[in-house]
Design brief:
This protein is of the alpha+beta class. It folds into two domains: 190 residues, no CATH class; 219 residues, no CATH class. 39% of the residues lie in helices and 22% in strands. The chain contains nine helices and 18 strands. The strands form three sheets. Strands 8, 9, 10, 11, 12, 16, 17 and 18 form an eight-stranded mixed sheet that branches. A seven-stranded antiparallel sheet has the order 2-6-7-1-5-4-3. Strands 13-14-15 form a three-stranded antiparallel sheet. Helix 1 crosses helix 2, helix 1 crosses helix 3 and helix 2 packs across helix 3. It is globular, with a radius of gyration of 24 Å.
Length: 424
Amino acid sequence: MDDDVPRRSVPIKLDVPEQRRGDLHQTKDQFLHCANRTSEWAWRYDDYCITSKSKAEDALYEDLREDTDLTANLVQKGIRRAIEAVDSGVEKLKQGENTSQPHFDSWSVVYDKRSATFNDDHATVSTPNGRVTAEYVFPPEDEREDTPFGRYYESDEWDASSATLQYDEQEDTFYLHVTLKNPDYTVDGTERQEAELPDDHDKNGVVLGVDLNVTGAFAVTSTGAFIGSADYLTHKRDEYEQRRGSLQQTGTRSAHLAIESIGSKFSDWSLDWLHNRANDLVEEAQIADVDGIIFEDLDHIRENIANGSKFQQWAYKKFVELVEYRVESTVLFVDFVNPAYTSQRCSQCGFTHEDNREDKQFVCQDCGYEINADYNGAKNIANRYCGYIHRGQKSRGGWASSQLALKSGTLNVNGEYTPAELLG
């Protein structure tokens, strides 16, 4: 817990591209829908309201994911905002104060490092239509040092941890109210002991790359874990389609009811299968002691399997959502990279050529490195994220550098290897 860590809130005016402003308004509408739906569910009776966030998520999460196009993180934030308000209302009732069911209508969306990235001069925030990049509107140069932005946001001693996006209707302007923490000092100003704050705190992290596939292993990690069988998942889908097609030809009412029944059973089965594979991946990340799980950008995934089935596209998207949901209760985060050429690049020497890969076999035409193609891709995905951080992009964890997790240790962007026995 870090309840004793000092916090500061810094309002930052945003320059949002005109064509993306509607995406932010849509995000607000769907976020408030999650909060109000949760409030209605939780505020049952004056003496029996639900104030457990886990109970609310278990009851409402899946439905709200279906109702909205928000990411898993934002749905959870909407649920939790409502439960916190209900809990506050219950406390007022216990003290004899008059109150009523919380209702949310003010313009605001809550973000953390999983759904937003806070950079030196801009922020990226999640919306139903992908991430929006908004440049900061800075205070005048000669006045900046005396503003909260200059004193806290630009200071190395303060770290952005979360933010609330708000909209000023009169000014027609978006603001990001960023919450910053200073982990070096307690509330009374005394410095924390060195043992509590390692030298490399917020400077270095380790990430796990994940390559998703429609054949072979469903997910392959940079640590060499092969999770689930995409072939088996496709086989089960084909069995369902064949059964459904046979019943459709019958055309009777009983056949129609049977189609609905097997469709529901297959939907439940596939969701359970993906849920278990998500748990397997998070467990692998925890065993490898990484900080983040890195996927290909979902837009590129959809392009890569454009000729595949809608079911495969759904399975990819749902799997990532389940992983995002699962890591909410851990210290892990999920992030994404552009996967262009990750399947053709040699993770050993960096040589990139389309002839390097043939189906599941990868043989570098330059250095001769041979490896499973999906495993090679997973390492490249993690390495690309490390490259982002190396070039100055701030990670979700706030580090200045990062390493990719391998079977037997870690590797940084400069190719420097650290064996597992030295990581302790």
